[in-house]
Design brief:
This protein has about 350 residues and is an alpha/beta fold. Helix content is about 35%, strand content about 15%. Helix 9 runs parallel beside helix 11. The protein is globular.
């Protein structure tokens, strides 16, 4: 059996279908065919209407590279010199959180549930051992998923509003447990739940082209979070009052850009701190943090916490040393001939 798995994996790596997906596709709930062989991107239909992309969800890319931990640790120390604590948040893949939904055919692509989980856990351990404040999202999100909470979309790579809320709660817990949080300008936030809505999804549309029945819609819930300054007695360590910058700056990916899934609003609610969202929907995981550092705001008004949300397919180690050199130079105020402040704020 091992030799058969090896041969099948080699077929996939070489871009050959080898007829390996027919059995799985024959059981499709949505009349899907050729997802793994002809889909763009390649995908697998899992249990209960969940779909997994081969490269983004099933491929077990290591995020525990020792060199990566060293790079993040060095950058974290540089930020600390500015009075800013880096909160590093590597998002788990959908197959790590929803292991019970992954189809049996995933083994043909080298997937093994225990190893997939260990990859993430090892990354968290190495980062923590290197002195990086790191948030483990796999543990709480997997627990919520086990309780049948829909933390990830079924036919879309992003999380649901519930998943975003659970993640924000875990991150806020890490922030508020740190002594530096006592310096923050606290606020009282109220979050109001609105109506459910359906949004379009590039991945869902790509998969739908290979299916005869309509796939699960990508549905979220609208929320609104509004805040007001707390009483002075509630923030005795704040010295700047109403003129204080947002204690938390969020840099990240399409998981948090432009208020996606209300993640930034939930982060405000659970931390009782204002959040300046600088996330970018760009596919480059370094873009948002590079743009933020080049804006000059770190030097002018450093936040207490810089939350860096890294998407599951970010694979920061694959970009080599150059992005880290750029981050370190920009954090130190060296932004090239244009100088810091030249980069546009926000997502693109």
């Amino acid at each position: 059996m091992d030799s058969m798995k090896t041969i099948a994996a080699l077929c996939v790596a070489a871009g050959l279908g080898c007829g390996i997906a027919q059995a799985e596709e024959a059981q499709s709930l949505y009349g899907c065919a050729n997802l793994a062989e002809k889909g763009e991107p390649q995908a697998l239909e899992g249990k209960d209407g969940y779909f997994f992309t081969v490269m983004g969800d099933i491929a077990m890319k290591s995020v525990a590279d020792p060199a990566l931990a060293e790079s993040v640790a060095a950058f974290s120390k540089l930020l600390k010199a500015h009075g800013t604590i880096l909160i590093f948040v590597p998002l788990p893949t959908r197959s790590q959180v929803l292991a019970d939904k992954v189809p049996q055919a995933a083994w043909l692509y080298g997937y093994k549930e225990n190893i997939n989980t260990e990859i993430y856990q090892e990354a968290i351990k190495r980062l923590n051992d290197a002195g990086v404040v790191t948030v483990d999202l796999l543990t709480p999100m997997k627990a919520k998923a086990a309780d049948d909470s829909p933390v990830y979309q079924k036919a879309d790579p992003l999380w649901t509003t519930e998943g975003a809320r659970f993640a924000a709660e875990a991150i806020a817990g890490k922030i508020t447990a740190m002594p530096q949080s006592r310096k923050a300008n606290l606020m009282t936030f109220t979050t109001t739940k609105g109506e459910d809505y359906t949004r379009r999804s590039d991945l869902r549309e790509a998969i739908q082209a290979h299916c005869s029945e309509s796939l699960p819609p990508v549905t979220e819930t609208r929320y609104e979070t509004v805040g007001e300054e707390a009483f002075a007695a509630d923030r005795p360590f704040n010295i700047l009052g109403a003129d204080a910058p947002a204690p938390v700056v969020l840099v990240g990916s399409r998981f948090s850009a432009e208020g996606q899934s209300h993640f930034d609003g939930f982060l405000k609610q659970f931390s009782s701190m204002d959040v300046d969202n600088r996330a970018s929907a760009s596919g480059n995981p370094f873009k948002s943090i590079t743009d933020y550092l080049r804006s000059g705001d770190l030097q002018a008004k450093p936040p207490l916490f810089l939350v860096w949300e890294v998407p599951p397919g970010g694979n920061l180690a694959s970009y080599g040393p150059e992005p880290w050199e750029t981050l370190e130079a920009s954090a130190a105020g060296d932004c090239g001939s244009d100088g810091c402040g030249a980069a546009a704020k926000g997502s693109e």
